[in-house]
Each structure stands twice: as C-alpha cells, then as structure tokens.
Write a structure and sequence with these properties.
This protein has about 1000 residues and is mainly α. It is built from 35 helices and no strands.
Amino acid sequence: MNLNDMIRPYKDKLLVESVVKSGALGLLVGTIPAAVLAGIFALLGDTSIVPKIVALAVFAITATVVGIVLFKKRYNQGMKDIARRMDKAGLNARVTTMLEFQNDKSYVAKMQREDTKKCLTNLDIETVKVRFPLPTILATIAMILVIALLLTVVAEARAQQLENTPTQEEQEILDQIDQTYEEIIEEIEEALQKEEISQEQADDLKETLDEWKDKMENASSPEEQEKINDEYKEKFDEIKENEQQKQEDMADLLEKEENMKELGEALKKDDMDEVNNALEDLKNKLENATDEERQEMAGEMAEELDKVIEEFEKQNPDDKDSPLKDALENFKENLEQIKTNPEDKEQLDKTFDDAKEDIFDAMDKIDKVEEIVDKAQEELDKVSDKIVGEDQNTADDMYEDMKDKIENSDQSEEDKKEDLDKIEDSQEKVDNILKDETMTDEEKKDAINEEWKDMENQFKDEYEAEKDALDKITDNIQKDEQLKEDLGEISDALNKEFNDDKKDPSDDPIADALDKMEDQIKNPSDLNQDGKVDEQDKQQAAEDLKNDLQNAIKDTPDSDMKDAIQDMIENLEGAIEDSKENGEMSDEQISDAFDQFESDLKDAINDAKQDKETSDEFHEGREEMVGKDQVAVEDMLDKVQDSVDKSQVSQDTWEKIEDVLDKLDKDVHDKLENNATKEEINSTINDAKQEISDLVQKDKNQSSENFEDFENSDTMSGLEDVKDKIENGDYEGAKEDLDKWEESMKDRYENLEGDALEEELGNISSELKDFASQLPDGSLKDQVNDMANKFQGASDQAKPEPDNENADQGAKDEAAKNEADSALGDFKDWMEGQIDKSESLDQTQGEIDDAMSDAQDQIAGNQPQSPNDQQNSQNNQNNQNNQNNQNNQNSQQPSDQESQNPSGDQNTEQENPSGGESESEENKPSDDQQSGGGGSGDSEIKDNPFVPGFENMTLEELIQSGVFSEEFDKMFDKPLTEAEKAAIEYYYASLLGKYN
C-alpha cells in the first residue's frame, strides 16, 4: 500500500472541514453588504418584495465568490497539512517524516516507512478530529436574522413613519398655516389688550381660528385643505356679517321707539357724526325741559332702552357680551339716575358724554372685528396660494370676479350668456395648463399669458367694433345737414351714453332723444281742418325717419348697434305698410318699436362697455401674472407688428422690420430679467425705434424718388413740388397738384381737331419718351413710358384718312381724346397710389412711435431708477419730443411755406399750434398751474380764435364736444388730415393737463 492510499481516507475527512469553513466564512461575509442594503431599504420604508430579492441576490453572490476564494486560497489542505493532523493523533511525526523521505532508498528510511505503515494500520480514523467554525456559523445566522428584521419589521415601521411625515410641499403648507394662525392670534390678542374688541368678540374669533387650524392640520389631502380653507373664509365672513347684523338689529329696535328713532337711524347709517347729532338732540330735549318734564322724559327714554335691550337679547340669546348692548345698558342706568335726580345738571352731562363714548367704542369694536376678519381672509388666501399655487389662485380669482361682474352687469341675458361661455371656456383652458405636469412654471405662465392676451384682444375687438360703428354713424349724421337736424340728438345721446361712465343715474339721454323722435311721428305739426292728426303726415314722418336711419348706417361696420337700427328700420317699414292697409298708423305699434329700439341700443352700449371692462380685466390679470413690464413690451410689439402688417411697406422692408422686432423683443426681455436701469431699456427701444423709422422713411423715399426730375420736363411741369409735399405730409396738396396737372395736360389737346390734334398728341408722346429716357430704371420710368405709348396710340387714332371721304373725323378725334384721357387717368391713379402709400407709411411711423413711447412710459414707471436715470430719461424724452415737433411742423407746412392763418396774418415760428401768439412769460401758466394745482379751476380758454361762440366752455367740454373737428377745417386753406386734427386736439389736452 503506497502513501497516498494510506492518507486518502484522512484527506477526504478533512476536506469536509475545509468546505464547511470556507462556506461558513463566505456566508458571514455575504451578510455584510446584504445587511447594508437591508438597512437602506428599511430607512426608505420600502416593504415590497423588490428589496428582499435584491438583498438575497447580493448575499448569495457575495457568499459564493468569497467561499470559493477562501477554499482555494486558505482552507484547501495539502499533503503536509494532512500529515501534520494525522501525527497529532499520536503518531509522533511519523507521517510527516515518511512524507519527507518517501523517495529516500536508504535502509533507515525504509524501516521508518514500514513502521509508519504499521502504525497507520492500527490507527483509528476517528482519532483525527474535524474542527467546525461554530462562532462563524452562529454569527452568520445572527446576521441573517438582522437582515430579515430590517427587511420586515423595521421597514414597515419606517414606512408608517414616512407615511405620517409631510412632504416638503406639505410642510410648507403646514408652516404657512402656523404662520397664519400666529399672526391672526397676535392681532386678536393685541386688539383685546387695547380693548379694541370685547372678550366675547375675541373668543369667537379665536374659536373659529382654532377650529380652522385643527382641521387644516388633520386634513388628509391638499384638496381637503383647500375645501376647509374656503369654508372658513365664509365662516369669518359670517362673523363680520353677524357683528354688522347686531348693529342693524339694535338700530331697527331703536327706530321703533319714539325718542330713540333718530339714534336708530344714525346707527343704521353707521355714521358717528349722525350718532353724535342724535345724542345731542336727546340731550337738548332734556336740558330744555323743566325738572318734572326731564324726570318724565328720562324715564320714558330709560323704559324704551330697557325694551330695546330685552328684545335684542331675545333675538340674540347667545350674545352675552355685546359692546353695543352694554353701551345702551349704561345709557339706560344713567337715564334712570336723571329720573331719580332730574335737577342734577352734572349727571345729565355725564350721561350723554358716557353714552357717546360707549356707543362710539362699541361701533369701533365692530369695525375692528371687521378689520381682523379682513386680515384673516387675506392670510387664508396666502394659505390657498400655498395649497393650489399662486398662479392657480390668481387665475381662479380673476375668472370668478369677471363672472360676477358679467352676471351683475346691464347686458342683455343673451349677451351675458355669450360672454360667460367665453369666460368658462378660457378658464377650462387655463385649468388644463396649470394641471399639465410636463410644463415648467415659466412655461405655464407664458401659456396663460398668451391665452389671456387672446381673450383681451377678443373682447377689445368687440368693443372697438361697436365704437367704430358709433363713430361712423355719428360721422354720417354730422356730414349731412338734414340728418344732423333730424338725428343730432340721438347721435349725441349715444355718444354720451357710450363714453360717460359717471353720469347721473337719473339722466337718460337715449330715452329723452327717442321720446322726441317718437312724438314727432305720433304728433306731426300739420293737422286736419278738424284738428286731428293727418295720417299721411304720420306716414311721411315715419318714412323720413326710416330714410334718415338708413343713411346713418350707410357703410357702417357690422355691430349690435347697426343691428338695432336695422331692426328699427324694419319695424318702421312694417308700421308704414300696416297704416297704408288700415288707413291709420297705430301709436301702440310705434311705441313698441321705439321701446324695442331703446332696449336694443342700450344693450349694445352696455355690452360694449362690459367688453371693454372684461378686456381690461384680462390685461390686468396678465400684468399680475407675468409683470407689467413684460406686458408693456408684448403690447408694444403687437401694436408695432399690427401697424406694419396693415401698412404698405415693401416686402423687403417688412422683413427687415421683423428682424428688428425680434431682436428688440429678446434684448428688452434680457434687460428686464437682469434688472437693467430705465436708461438702458429706453436706449434699447429708442435704437429700435430709430432703426424702424429709417427703414420706413427709406421705403417712403423710394415711393417718391425721381419726382424732382419732373422740373426737367415741360410735359410734367406742375408736378415739381409733389415730392416736397409728400415729404412734408401735405398729401392733399400733392393730389391737388395732380388734378391741376391733369387739367393742364387736357387743355393742350382738348380743343384741337384732325391734324392739329394728331400733332399735339404726338408731341406729348415724344416729350414723355424723352423724359423717360432721362429716368433710371424703375416703376416711374415704366409708367411714363406706358403713358407715352398710349399718347402715341391716341395720335395714330386721330390721324385723318385723306383717301376716305366718308371717314368720321369727329368720332376719330373723340376716340383719340378718350385714349389720351385714359392715359392721363392711369398715370394719375398710379401717382395717387404712391401718395397714399407715403401717407400710410407716415401713419405707420406715428403708430409705431406711439406704441414704443407708451411702452417706455410704462416700463419707466415700473423699473428702479439709478441716480442719473431721471435726468437722462428726461433728456431722451425732450430729444424725442423735439424730433416729433419738427416732424409735425414738416407735416403741416404748406407747399409754399407761407400758408396764412384764418385771419389772414402770416404764420411765423413764434406762433403756437392753436394759431395764437406764443406764450410770453406773462401768458404762461404759473408753476402751480403747470403742476396741476392752483390753476384755473374751470379750465376755460377765453377768446379762443378756433372756436368762436364757445369761448366759455371748459377745455374738457370742448374736447369731448367734437366741435374742434368742425372748426379745424376752417383754420387753413386746405382740409386737415386726421393726424393733424389729432395733433391739435392733443395740444388742447395738454393744456387741460396744465390747468387742471
């Protein structure tokens, strides 16, 4: 038997020990990361199966890897290790020695091997003990139990704890609740300490507040918190109303008593001066009475107060500490003392002094409770902001306010429903935006801003449509003398009703005007011989009114007001037809028509006013949502874009302006976000304004370029000043020159015939071609060439036919002249198009400047000022004003630069825009007047040359009357443009600002 065969049984036995040791230690090491993971999952409160699977996988993988490594590197025993273990069983190193000398051939080595084999044969294998790592096994079992504990009991306990721990958002809400509670409690305690409220009032407020706090903290969700918050806003409102109701109840009871009636009325008005007067009257009655009368009167007053207090207690059984009741009880007791001792004057004075003090104090306590309630509701609103978000709260509040205003407005029910539907649709869109979890807060604000901008413009457009219709109707009436006479009053009434938001409720101009019109139909001036109304006259009066109304709405844009007038026209037509059939016009039918007409007109006006108010609400909401500065910039860009879109700028210019606006939008918003100064923002807008102005001016110049070359052509003589007049804004003058030129051209051939006509038309054609050859390529050259060709065709048409004696030369001449007239007309139309384009571009420039200036003004009012901003801003504004003034002077300057004023005097640079002399030092308003104070209180301008007969009207009345529009046309030898009229009206408005 060789050595390996002898050792193998012992090797197999000790292998189990190696495996057990490696595995046990591997398991122990594997529990360490598993325990760490179990602890993490326990802290997270995750009680699902996922952490158990993860921990088990980590444990198994780690234990297996570590066990294998330990077995191979540490616990796998070699032959020497086994030999040493066998020797320890009593073999005295025999196996080790045999192993060392197993290849030795010496006699001694052979004898040693034989001896060892004999001993091994007699050795019991059980004497070689296997040692297992019991501590390691126990530690592993303990760690596994820890892991199981962490993954079950501890994780569940932590999950329960986390469930009861508020999130950051929930904690912020709870913090806001605590802060709100503390602030209101502090307000109540301070008021109680100062005796500004009674103990009972303080207890009511505290009890309500404690209930609110308890319910809010125990609510299961933000939705429930919001519901509770809204509920307690109403409860606080009830406290305020209850306090007011107590005072009203007491006032009602006092009013029923003979002596206390005046005091009751004063309390109902909640007017301390009235209360003081009522008490003074009672005191005077007692003072002026005899002792017996005083005794009797004091007794009556005391009895009345006792009755009032008793009734009050019955109505308010829970009210144990009403300040007003206590005040009246003290008053009653003092009156009883007067009854006991009526001659005591000091007691009389004390009674009423105490009564005033007590009643005033009670009224102050009621007011203080209302003040605390208002404060509480403001604080509860802050809690709502935390719960649903400030944007949500802002949006909801605005929509609810608008719906309330619309429901309580004077609109017709149909218009109310239409507006409310729009509001609710918009609210639904905003709610969806706020609930969209994919959007950031800034994206939500921008989206709401866009939605509100759309709604603002929608209601604004509806208002503007009604206003445009009214303006057109008024304009039609003012232009026609007969309409002005027949419908002037209704026109004035509509304007007054439309524009006057603060009129006397008893004043009803529309009803008054319509009553007069109705009376004119029912009672025409002509009577039959028997004194009765002539039915034909009534028919004629109705027919005249129908025709007047038709003319009034001629070319009027669609609107509710136009529909109202159209319905009235149809009703009049029906009444006229019925009267023709029946031989008599029904007064009742006419009355019904006018009643309906009045209702429709008022509905149209009220609807327009509400549209404007709703538009303003959306505008204010946008300002609150994203800031006034951003809204100012957006509105400016929209107005500029709209003006450019409507203008006649070329496509190339339009695209360049678009680029300027895009850059301006980005630059201004960047500056706003970085809190730039007003000077920097204004400078950015001014740069863009100048850039756009240059682009528009360049486009305008292109419309009139080369026009100055007209002076190089005899044929075009008379049009030399067209370009100058266009540049100076004298568009009517430019068109008048066109008319004169056209007439002068016609004069050259109008009275010619035959050969003479042919020759002259040919000469004109040659002159035009020569002139065209001097012009650069462009639209003007093309137009002149086209006109030259048409004149040549007209010349050919006028050429006599000598071989044809039957030819009608007169007809040929007429056809040639018509052809020449057509050529002139086509060129004139093209020229007028260039003039209209220049006028449109001027108007566009003005609108752009106004929009940008408005934005600058608003931003200037909202942005912080650096120390030098104010002066720099003023300098910029002055420079801009100077430029605008120069532009206005250029636009109003007559073509000969020597236009005269209405009186024939020469206008000079020293004359002011109103046509009078410039303000000297003595004529200028004082500093007080310029600053708005201490000036002429009635805002009158005496001896005004522009409005003779209206000298004593105030500026405001003059501006609102529209009389300027009539008088301005008389000021110059040419009609004024709307822009010129607006400039002069602006001057009067600026005066109004100085004097008011």
